[in-house]
Amino acid sequence: MKTTIASYLPELTALRRDLHQHPELGFEETRTAGIVAQMLGKYGIEVHTGWAKTGVVGVIKRGDSDRTIALRADMDALSLQEYSNLEYGSVNDGVMHACGHDGHMAMLLGAARYLAERGRFDGTVVFLFQPAEEGGGGGRLMVAEGVIDKFGIQAAYGLHIRSDLEAGHFATRPGTIMVATDNFEITVHGEGTHAALPHTGVDPIVTASQLVIALQSVVSRELKALDSAVLSITQFSSGSAYNVIPDEAVLRGGTRYRSPETGAALLEAMERVTAGVCSAYNARYTFQHMPGYPATINSPAETEAAVSAAGKALGADKVQGNCSLIMASEDFSYFLEKVPGCFAFLGNGTRTRAHRADFDFNDDILPLGIGYWVTLVEQELGERAE
Ligand code: NI
Which one of 126, 209, 270, 283 is least enclosed by Cβ atoms within 10 Å? Predict the structure, then answer.
């Protein structure tokens, strides 16, 4: 397997760098999708385009088993100006592959080629190339459009590089691996008046200030200490003059939490505290909750399968099967809401950090990611007797 994969690397490295040079934002990945579809077609794989606008699905069916697993890569880039000395640096101003999605696509395409040409398995492999992971919810849309039922997907696996993990090391965990993130906006409606006559109005700034402090006790006093959660108020805006008490104040921020139950408890407490504080100060309020990605929750059996495949492909000493969870979110969570599966990390090496203007995917790990995917498929879909 290693020699065959090594023979793919010149083409795949060039492809990866071409994708890096031409990054596209969520739901605008038309060039990218065209290349992915063309490569899958070239490998003789059945291709379905137009999923979640710019998503691409490839399918390989072997033998007569009805077992079906999905492997997923994300396709979009970030709104970020690249500053690097790479000869294949981004040619699109303000758009950059700073999260390794260029590498995710190249690794999954390499696995697709290997599995199409010489994969030993009995069942169906579905390759999900999804758009708009970085906030657009491309995974949510693919799931909403019925990708799970349409292809009969029974388990789903995702792989993401990590820049705080040594190159070629692998990390995952059963249960929540990445948290849910929601945003909120609270508008405190007071009654504006002259700054010299506060008793003739209702001061939204004083009310909102109390609210900022009161909300801090939600996580620390209402949630179990082991239920990791964060509530941060990141914007406080109000007023426009030195001598006018304004009509309203707006607070914005976000929450992060690891289970749906914690999310519901947070929301209930935030609304209750907001209502109570505003009532105490004679103010009214509007509370807007903007749900983001849910928590990414790995199922135990599929996590074991991923750890086992990674051990065979990368060496057991490189694999952490119970890494710590990450307080960021991922829209692979929508696939895992429907079917069991495992989201895992592959170390990119610590030379450059993701989401920074000088980030680059480490091409040395291309064969490692491909090896993991192929091993996982051949392990989970059995080997055909030859
Ligand atoms: Ni990413």
Answer: 209
> What six digits make up the tokens of 53?
């606008």
Distance between Cα 72 and ligand 1 center (Å): 12
Could you tell me how many residues make up the chain?
Answer: 386
Q: Rounded CA gap, 28 and 31, in Å?
A: 8
Between the alpha carbon of residue 187 and those of residues 190, 280, 284, the distances in Å are 10, 16, 8
The pTM assigned to this predicted structure is: 0.90
pLDDT tens digits, 85-110: 999 999 999 999 999 999 999 999 99
Element (H, E) at 160: strand 155-162
Q: How many CA atoms lie within 13 A of 54 on its CB side?
A: 22
CA distances from 303 to 113, 240, 337, 347, 383 (A): 24, 54, 15, 17, 20
In the reported structure, the alpha carbon of residue 342 is separated from the centroid of ligand 1 by a whole-number distance in angstroms of 16
The domains of the chain are located at 2-176+296-381, 180-291
Residue 161 CA to ligand 1 centre (angstroms): 8
> Can you name the residues that pair with 96 across neighbouring β-strands?
78
CATH ID of 180-291, from 3.30.70.360, 3.40.50.720, 3.40.50.300, 3.90.550.10: 3.30.70.360
CATH fold for domain 2-176+296-381? Aminopeptidase (3.40.630)
